């Protein structure tokens, strides 16, 4: 049970003061009866709520998949740069979702956004062993020694030893390589720093999978959509 004004406020119908006004005007119905008190307790999932004759669709949480573009910050707000939240439509931004983990400003690809704190914690905590898969282009050739080093655990420039990671070579020549990297951590600039530790530089980085969920290739950079129930089951590791 939740307060009526809180439910409607969360769905973007205005401030609590504004909702009090529309309730007084007789514009809100609960199960076919006019609501008389904006503070009344309502079960939004069991009751039929109508505002100005239109039935509302209530949801507490929102789950979004975005193909993050280059140059956008993985944050809810920033003084100088555009953030991923700035790319959301108002009807989605009203739920105040936040990015699950982060992608560097110049890294593109799969970014999840949600206001479900429990799922967020499960996905970003290393102890839950959630795979994050990246496609990367490297400035030099990559070989078997690099694969072994990643598997053993790369030591970063600050002395931190990474958890074992999987490095797969798609194509490698002297002047550069294309690879897949699978991690279960999300340290700052981690993929780039791992390659720097073996004397190489990442020139392009794109996340293509998170928690077993692949990026929807139909999404252009900057576009997003809500996750399906099946995709949520994958993230929650449900059968």
UniProtKB/TrEMBL annotation:
Q: Which keywords has UniProt assigned to this entry?
A: Isomerase, RNA-binding
> Matching InterPro entries, A to Z?
PsdUridine_s_RsuA/RluB/E/F_cat, PsdUridine_synth_cat_dom_sf, PsdUridine_synth_RsuA/RluA, PsdUridine_synth_RsuA/RluB/E/F, PsdUridine_synth_RsuA/RluB_CS, RsuA_PseudoU_synthase, S4_RNA-bd, S4_RNA-bd_sf
Q: Where do the RNA-binding S4 domain residues begin and end?
A: 2-62
Q: What is its EC number?
A: 5.4.99.-
Name the domain of life: Bacteria
GO MF annotation list: RNA binding; rRNA pseudouridine synthase activity
Has UniProt tagged this entry with the keyword Amino-acid biosynthesis?
no
Instruction: Point out the coiled-coil segments of this chain.
Output: none
Question: What GO terms fall under cellular component here?
Answer: cytosol
Q: A GO BP term, please?
A: enzyme-directed rRNA pseudouridine synthesis
Entry-linked Pfam families: PseudoU_synth_2, S4
Which SMART domains does the annotation name? S4 (SM00363)
Give the matching NCBIfam families.
pseudouridine synthase
UniProt family annotation: Belongs to the pseudouridine synthase RsuA family.
Q: What is the protein name for this chain?
A: Pseudouridine synthase
**Species name:** Clostridium intestinale URNW
